[in-house]
Specification:
alpha+beta, four-stranded antiparallel β-sheet, 4 helices, elongated
């Protein structure tokens, strides 16, 4: 075979290969469009079954020892109060006492900064309660300020609410969202005069937990509300189905 024949043979092979590749590309494009993509939603509301409540006792004194005594007195009153309300002492966790020196800024007669003067000590002791008795602890958190009349310096925080069976909720929502997506896809296919085939791909959205009656914005990374006792969970499923 001379060079001229070889050249035409190579050109012919190139033409055939190009036609094959173009055909494959067209077929792939056609098939990739032969699907429908839908987003299904799963939602449910539930009530928290675990409460975590915390507070802090405070005291200020010229001597650290006096501050400790005040903290201990407040601690006994709080412990007695909680026990009287039916809270087991084992559920109350007391942290160590934090002691800080306090200073007062001093200025000269003409108003210039002249340094600081030691004034005493500031003490803080935090405590927390974790319980499945949500009603009980919730009521105590609202009434704890009654101890202020007994000389207890206390700062009570808002309770945090949790649910111990979130994995079950999540699995249930995935099923609901998938079923919702399937129903949407079938409706679209029915209107187009065709049917739904196998799943081509599926992607789960972020797991969102908000207050049941709160107007909260959803977060791209997922939200996890702990401030509300009554919550709403939400999840989406983006599913691509093949068309029959």
């Amino acid at each position: 075979m001379n060079r001229e024949h070889i050249k035409y043979a190579i050109i012919g092979i190139a033409i055939i290969l190009s036609a094959y590749l173009l055909g494959r590309a067209y077929t792939y494009k056609y098939r990739s469009q032969d699907t429908v993509v839908v987003t299904g939603l799963g939602e449910t509301e539930f009530e928290s079954d675990l409460i975590v409540w915390s507070g802090v006792l405070t005291a200020e004194a010229a001597e650290a020892a006096d501050g400790y005594r005040r903290i201990e007195q407040s601690k006994r009153k709080v412990s007695d109060y909680l026990a009287a309300k039916g809270i087991d002492a084992k559920q109350v966790v007391w942290n160590f006492v934090n002691v800080d020196k306090t200073y007062q800024t001093v200025y000269s007669a003409n108003g210039n900064y002249a340094g600081q003067r030691f004034t005493g000590y500031s003490l803080r002791q935090e405590f927390s309660i974790e319980s499945t008795h949500v009603d009980l602890v919730e009521n105590v958190s609202r009434e704890i300020s009654a101890l202020i009349a007994q000389g207890v310096s206390i700062e009570a925080r808002q309770p945090d609410y949790y649910y111990t069976k979130l994995d079950d909720v999540k699995l249930s929502l995935i099923e609901r969202a998938s079923a919702d997506a399937r129903a949407r896809a079938e409706k679209i296919a029915q209107n187009a005069g065709t049917g739904i085939g196998a799943v081509a791909s599926a992607r789960m959205g972020v797991f969102q937990i908000t207050g049941a009656n709160a107007n909260e914005e959803f977060s791209a990374g997922g939200s996890f509300n702990t401030a509300s006792r009554h919550k709403k969970a939400r999840i989406t499923m983006r599913i691509e189905y093949r068309i029959k």
